[in-house]
Amino acid sequence: MPFYTQEQLGSGLRRNTEHQMTQPKVLISDKMDPRAAAIFRERGIQVDEITGKTPEELAAIIGDYDGLAIRSSTKATAKLLDQATNLKVIGRAGIGVDNVDIPAATARGIVVMNTPFGNSITTAEHAIALMFALARQLPEADASTQAGKWEKNRFMGVELTAKTLGLIGAGNIGSIVASRALGLKMKVIAFDPFLSPERALELGIEKVELDQLLARADFITLHTPLTDQTRGILSREALAKTKKGVRIINCARGGLIDEAALKDALESGQVAGAALDVFETEPATASPLFGTPGFVSTPHLGASTTEAQVNVAIQVAEQMSDFLLLGGVTNAINMPSLSAEEAPRLKPYMALAEKLGRLLGQVLGEQVRGVSIEVEGAAAQLNQKPITGAVLAGLMGTYSQTVNMVNAPVLAKERGLDVKEIRHEREGDYQTLVRVTASTPGGERCVSGTLFGNAAPRLVDIFGVAVEAELGGHMLYIVNNDTPGFIGKLGTALGQAGLNIATFNLGRRAAGGEAVALVAVDDPVPAELVQQLCALDGVREVVPLNF
Ligand SMILES: NC(=O)c1ccc[n+]([C@@H]2O[C@H](COP(=O)([O-])OP(=O)(O)OC[C@H]3O[C@@H](n4cnc5c(N)ncnc54)[C@H](O)[C@@H]3O)[C@@H](O)[C@H]2O)c1
Ligand SMILES: O=C(O)[C@H](O)COP(=O)(O)O
């Protein structure tokens, strides 16, 4: 059974639960090593490989699939995702996810995962290869020689040894480039606001500001994602600040360099050479840079080695299968990780958490301004994020059809819901407990639940009244004065309405005080019956519940 059932998620990843239970279906829409499809099949997932489709053609078929495996060609836009009514996961066999509209995917409850390390060595090697290509004008020399020109005096190169390499971005790929460059006896400086001095020391590189890097580097190589902060980081102004005769390599993302300004800088000699693997518009079939002296290009080949493609294909297929079959979440961009080993242990907790959230949502409705989620005892040994996600999905699932574990934290933030997570390592009255406290204008209201036999969720406290109830199906939450004969009257009213009682759980604050009944019934409770029950003597509150 899949981990993210409708019941657990409150309605988000729900749309074709029937179908998912039988055999999930994945579409591979970009060229990928055949091992990806083989893994999906081995794991019992139906897979179609349909590449080279237009956005319209893709939109026409995407509704059939639970998973979409892509590289950088497929554009997972909001428009495409609107048609992806069954989609639960997008797997990027590679690093960059700028071809996926992450907020749109998150809003639709779709997990987006990538494979952050599978192609980093390969891409770093490509950057080094392009650095050599620029230093020795290899592409031009090759073309000239093969044209029979033998222009030995035309191609004077430069050595890399002792030159300064400026890294813009020193994450996974940048650090690998640094280690290779240090091996070539270059001096490596890096601009990366998130690089700690300790990490810089460990890498053997010098952390500098961007202007220092521009002024000092003989070679500049870019290794950042494309973000609002990095877009145009090598702008016309930045290029003007570079050391004259600098050589620039971009194996990261198009858009980091102002391409028109780069062409001018190449022509003026400010930049002696530039090698781009990535372009602002791809496929780049007609760049103004083409033909500019000192310009070298490759068609987004950074990750294109056999080794890297095998790595990312295997990894993405395993990750997506783990998610679709077991609920394991690895390398997700829009959701906390949850290993396939952890997933089964968390499953009953998430069911409990979702039900506690749903209970609060149904009883308190729009009064809830914030929630505090506490885990105690055995529950505190687990990854709390999925438990929090499940509470929020349950809570907001009472008024939203589209909320699920993936988008619940974002939706909660958008709605200004204050969410707190608290962990108590020590056991209290129960060996394991999840307590959810809602803050409302009228004060704090708290419900708690535990697991019987480590698997069966049970409510053990509702608003300070001890009960022991299984939450599920159709139920009634009734608050009444604790008076003799009330239960008989309640049973009679339900019986007269033709509603069969499945379970009956009682609790009270004090003898003769406020009493609580949680009654599970076999069918939905009609609104008229709720009115009728409200009119019974001593009744303070009646809320029909659905789980
Ligand atoms: N050409 C290709 O085929 C190819 C292959 C793989 C990856 N990539 C691209 O390479 C890039 C780097 O990948 P990675 O795996 O090293 O990513 P990463 O997340 O490990 O590293 C990115 C680094 O950029 C830094 N950074 C973020 N904002 C910055 C800013 N404003 N200024 C300077 N540094 C900043 C981060 O701190 C981080 O250290 C990504 O854009 C990825 O998509 C391209
Ligand atoms: O971000 C990446 O992993 C690279 O840009 C590789 O893209 P590709 O899978 O389309 O070659």
TrEMBL record:
Pathway: Amino-acid biosynthesis; L-serine biosynthesis; L-serine from 3-phospho-D-glycerate: step 1/3. Residues 474-537 form the ACT domain. The keyword Oxidoreductase applies. The keyword Amino-acid biosynthesis applies. Keywords: Amino-acid biosynthesis, NAD, Oxidoreductase, Serine biosynthesis. It catalyses: (R)-2-hydroxyglutarate + NAD(+) = 2-oxoglutarate + NADH + H(+); (2R)-3-phosphoglycerate + NAD(+) = 3-phosphooxypyruvate + NADH + H(+). Residues 345-462 form the D-3-phosphoglycerate dehydrogenase ASB domain. Residues 26-334 form the D-isomer specific 2-hydroxyacid dehydrogenase catalytic domain. Residues 1-21 are annotated as: Disordered. Its EC number is 1.1.1.95. Residues 128-302 form the D-isomer specific 2-hydroxyacid dehydrogenase NAD-binding domain. Catalyzes the reversible oxidation of 3-phospho-D-glycerate to 3-phosphonooxypyruvate, the first step of the phosphorylated L-serine biosynthesis pathway. Also catalyzes the reversible oxidation of 2-hydroxyglutarate to 2-oxoglutarate. PANTHER family: FORMATE DEHYDROGENASE 1, HYDROXYPYRUVATE REDUCTASE. Belongs to the D-isomer specific 2-hydroxyacid dehydrogenase family. This is D-3-phosphoglycerate dehydrogenase. It comes from Sphingomonas humi. The gene is serA.
